[in-house]
Amino acid sequence: MTDFRLICEDWNAEILAARRTHPGRVRIICPFIKASALSRILSAARIDDIEVITRFDLACFDQGVSDLDALERILDAGGKVRGVKGLHAKLFLFGEAVAIATSANVTDAAFHRNHEFGFVSTNPAIVATCEAYFDKLWKAAKPSLRAKQLADWRKRLAERRKAGDASAATVPLTDFGAEVDQSSPFAPPADAPPPQDNQGFIKFFGTARNRADRTVRVDDMIAENGANWACTYPESKPPRQVQDGDVIYMGRLVQNPNDLLIFGKALGRRHRDKEDRASKKEIAVRGWKADWPRYVRVHDGQFLDGTLADGISMSEMLRDLGADAFASTQRHARDQSGNTDPFASYGRKAHMLLTDESRAWIEDRLGAALRQHGEVDLTQDRFQPPA
Predict the structure, then answer these.
(1) Lowest mean pLDDT among 6-20, 179-193, 306-320
(2) Which of 159, 208, 284, 346 is paired with 191 by a 20 to 30 Å CA distance?
């Protein structure tokens, strides 16, 4: 069974099946709740804990689109209910393992007759995101409904119905929900960097045993290693991740103190096993290419016209961003498994896949450095690739 399915029909069966499969804790976000539909959910399996976020607008109960009886059944089951003004989201969380997002309210019409659409997922990342959304909304919507408050609402509505239309001014239909400013759980924060349509990598030049001095000039270095036309990789590690148009940020391992300093960037091309290799002639000129013969060819490079000391510190980036520095550590942090320390993740790697956050961090600082120091003039003969 897939861990994500789109659903457009038979919502009653879908929700009850998820409830039976995952008894225990129940969390629901839904603006309109009818007692009959809710009763089926509650009775489908054992309940250890139930929390519901809905609307506390008395007009909804007066018009019959939601039931006070439904809220009473939740309280009778030992559950808690909180209200939010303007609530429109519908979300079901069963146990800690399944999330259902839907357009369907907890009503017989929505479960059986209306055209509703949504998804059911057991994907841990999706479930965790939905849980975080619920928790954030739950904390903002306090306090929980009390039985005494529910009884007062019943009294108000009964008085209004008894008086008829003339009661509108004397028995107002108050909305007791909390004012909550809430964003979509799947939308990035307002200050998040825009998503990229290509990948970004940080390519490591040098090794832990071969660190450069910070006084090395960038132009002399790329004239020697050819980084303006190709990044080299070891025979044992074909660079399969890089695709046409991906951005490669280039950094050199340095000493005093140890760090990796980013000195430029270029656009990469997908590696081809036969064509993208150092020739015998190239290896004869640069013997180290015997161990690093694979190429990711690059173009449209921009390199700092200064020394390595003018470059951008990767260590500073790792300290600032933590797990968000690399795609692997960000994924591990989201899944709550595996290594999340970026300093412990790049050893013996030829490159690392970056995140949108780290790309934005590098772009901001590298752009400023290029404006300050200028760019290497790559039209000079010493920067030309071999024929």
Answers:
(1) 179-193
(2) 346
- Token couple for 112: 């059986």
Domain 200-383: CATH superfamily is ph1033 like domains (3.10.590.10)
Per-residue confidence band for 183, with pLDDT thresholds at 50, 70 and 90: low
Report the CATH number of the 4-163 domain.
3.30.870.10
Q: How many CA atoms, within 13 angstroms, populate the side-chain half-sphere of residue 30?
A: 28
Name the amino acid, one letter, at 35: A
**Alpha carbon of 366 to those of 50, 313, 373: distances in Å?**
51, 10, 10
Number of C-beta neighbours around residue 107 at 10 A:
22
Task: Tell the residue number behind the tokens 């897939």, with chain if given.
Answer: 2
For residues 354-358, give the mean pLDDT: 94
Average pLDDT of the segment spanning 172-180: 89
Other C-beta atoms closer than 10 Å to the C-beta of 217 total 16
Are residues 105 and 92 in contact, defined by beta-carbon separation less than 8 angstroms? no
Could you tell me the two tokens for 272? Answer: 């081809």
Amino acid at 277: R
